[in-house]
């Protein structure tokens, strides 16, 4: 009988110790889990204005005629006039290219008395591809001179001049660092307001870089923008 009482007492003591230890472990785990959940997600922004480093200036024109040979001669003549105009404006011949004419038989889609006055039309583009941004801007207002030489350019928006920035890789690392610093600044402010400190980074993602015209009047100036999203832990 005494042995049974002693065994029960030992068993009870073991259970009590187990509950104390287990409870302490669970409490520690709960604190660690709660600490792991204390985090803040912030976004960091970096912006920079840069100058375009490549210009694409298309000069598009259309000629018409009833004979293909005549149309081809007109295309060659007007393309030569445009090339001379461009070289006189200071562009190197290797920066000027001419596309093959796109010829359309306008009679093919007409019926009866609805035929256009001439049968064939040919469209061609003389393209200037150059890093000389200022030279392009200076020459563009002079295209009216081509009219007096018998060339009428198409006012199609599809053939608008483009100014591009192609050197993104050079500024990428510094802009990412700026965006990251901006995100940490926001996290630090949040931590101070909540009585905490900023800890380690839990996760981070970099948004895509966007390149846009500064405004519609200065398309040769670009605004480069990137946003990063970072999760920081918060500590007491």
Automatic annotation (TrEMBL):
One of its GO terms (biological process) is DNA damage response. This is Periplasmic protein. The lineage of its organism: Bacteria, Pseudomonadati, Pseudomonadota, Gammaproteobacteria, Salinisphaerales. PANTHER family: SLR1258 PROTEIN. Pfam families: SIMPL (PF04402). InterPro entries: 26kDa_periplasmic_antigen, SIMPL/DUF541, UCP029033.
């Amino acid at each position: 009988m005494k042995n049974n009482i002693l065994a029960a007492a030992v068993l009870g003591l073991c259970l009590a110790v187990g509950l104390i230890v287990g409870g302490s472990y669970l409490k520690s785990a709960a604190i660690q889990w709660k600490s792991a959940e204390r985090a803040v997600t912030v976004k960091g922004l970096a912006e920079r204005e840069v100058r375009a480093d490549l210009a694409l200036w298309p000069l598009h024109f259309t000629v018409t005629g009833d004979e293909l040979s005549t149309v081809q001669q007109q295309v060659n003549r007007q393309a030569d006039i445009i090339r001379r105009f461009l070289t006189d404006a200071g562009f190197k011949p290797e920066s000027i290219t001419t596309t093959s004419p796109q010829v359309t038989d306008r009679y093919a889609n007409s019926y009866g008395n609805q035929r256009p006055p001439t049968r064939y039309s040919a469209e061609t583009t003389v393209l200037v591809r150059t890093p000389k941004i200022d030279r392009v801007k200076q020459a563009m207002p002079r295209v009216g001179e081509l009219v007096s030489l018998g060339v009428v350019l198409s006012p199609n928006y599809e053939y608008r001049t483009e100014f591009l920035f192609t050197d993104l890789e050079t500024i990428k690392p510094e802009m990412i660092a700026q965006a990251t610093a901006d995100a940490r600044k926001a996290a630090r402010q949040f931590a101070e307001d909540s009585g905490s400190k900023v800890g380690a980074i839990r996760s981070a993602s970099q948004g895509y870089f966007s390149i846009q015209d500064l405004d519609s009047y200065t398309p040769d100036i670009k605004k480069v923008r990137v946003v990063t999203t970072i999760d920081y832990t918060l500590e007491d």
